[in-house]
Design goal:
This protein is an alpha/beta fold. It has a single domain, classed as P-loop containing nucleotide triphosphate hydrolases (Rossmann fold), CATH 3.40.50. It is built from ten helices and ten strands. It has helices at 42-50, 71-77, 94-100, 109-119, 121-125, 136-148, 166-183, 194-200, 218-222, 225-231; strands at 4-13, 16-26, 31-35, 54-61, 64-65, 79-82, 154-158, 186-191, 203-208, 211-216. A six-stranded mixed sheet has the order 6-7-8-3-9-10, sandwiched between helices. It has a four-stranded antiparallel sheet with strand order 2-1-4-5, covered by helices on one side. The longest helix has 18 residues, at 166-183. The radius of gyration is 17 Å and the shape is globular. The model has no long low-confidence stretch (mean pLDDT 96). Bound molecules: adenosine-5'-triphosphate and magnesium ion (MG). Residues 42-43, 84, 158-159 line the site of magnesium ion.
């Protein structure tokens, strides 16, 4: 059984429809990538899974229909969210920002802090640094770490490489791969960075103007003319 099943999902901002009948399955223990250009609906899709938008269609998580749940209920049920550009508290320290994520999982604070610090040792060295003074890469690590503090079974990550150097992109990719391999965590990543996504995800959906245009493995998609033209410029 898929851990997450999205069926015919539509999302609305007022009268404007940002998702048009999106369906996708996420198998447990996998990394799934969602690639698409600016405005494709990537953030809207993750927001909609979390219950942050107005939607029709169904979202099932771990067998249960979660379509009308609140974001807080979804976090408690095991969906962690690292949103685009982090939304950290800039005048609070690294550890304090991480602890904000621990609110629904207070019995596992020490265990989860250990996991985050093992994954991103720089955060352990700089626990007291205000996140507003950190580099973009370090802030991205705090954002991922904060989502991990919720003890998720499914982690949603929105554009983790945006604005980061190639070296830091590789570090983030390595951390996500390690997390998936060592803990079996299921991860959905949205990206415009196609190479990053293809190096990580077992299955990829291509989202364009609110619709799934193609899906398949990285190998399958690399052979598609549309992908070559629109994403690799050849
Ligand atoms: N709060 C909002 N109110 C109205 N329209 C919105 C809102 N958020 C997003 N949209 C619209 O929905 C569409 C999808 O936006 P979304 O942010 O999901 O795209 P995206 O794929 O995440 O893009 P990006 O790569 O730039 O982050 C766009 O046309 C956008 O203008
Ligand atoms: Mg976005």
């Amino acid at each position: 059984m898929a851990l997450l099943e999205v069926s015919n999902l539509e999302a609305f901002y007022g009268k404007a429809r940002a998702l048009h009948g999106v369906s996708m399955d996420v198998e447990p223990g996998t990394i799934v990538g969602i690639i698409g250009p600016n405005g494709a609906g990537k953030s809207t899709l993750l927001d909609s899974i979390m219950g942050m938008t107005t939607t029709t269609g169904t979202v099932r998580f771990d067998g249960a229909d979660i379509s009308s749940r609140t974001p807080a209920q979804n976090v408690k049920a095991g969906i962690g969210y690292a949103p685009e550009r982090g939304n950290l508290f800039p005048f609070m320290g690294v550890k304090e920002n991480l602890l904000v994520g621990a609110y629904t999982s207070r019995d596992k604070v020490d265990e989860n802090l250990r996991l985050v610090f093992d994954l991103f040792p720089v955060l352990e060295q700089r626990q007291a640094q205000e996140t507003g003074t950190q580099s973009g890469g370090e802030r991205q690590m705090v954002s991922l770490g904060r989502a991990l503090m919720t003890s998720p079974a499914l982690l949603l990550v929105d554009e983790p490489t945006i604005g980061l150097s190639p070296k830091v992109c590789l570090d983030i990719a390595a951390a996500l791969r390690r997390l998936n391999e060592q803990t079996g965590l299921t991860i959905i990543i949205t990206e415009q960075n196609v190479n990053f996504t293809m190096s990580l995800a077992q299955h990829i959906y291509v989202l364009e103007t609110g619709e799934i245009r193609l899906s398949g493995t990285a190998e399958e998609l690399k052979g598609e003319d549309h992908i070559k033209e629109a994403y690799f410029g050849s």
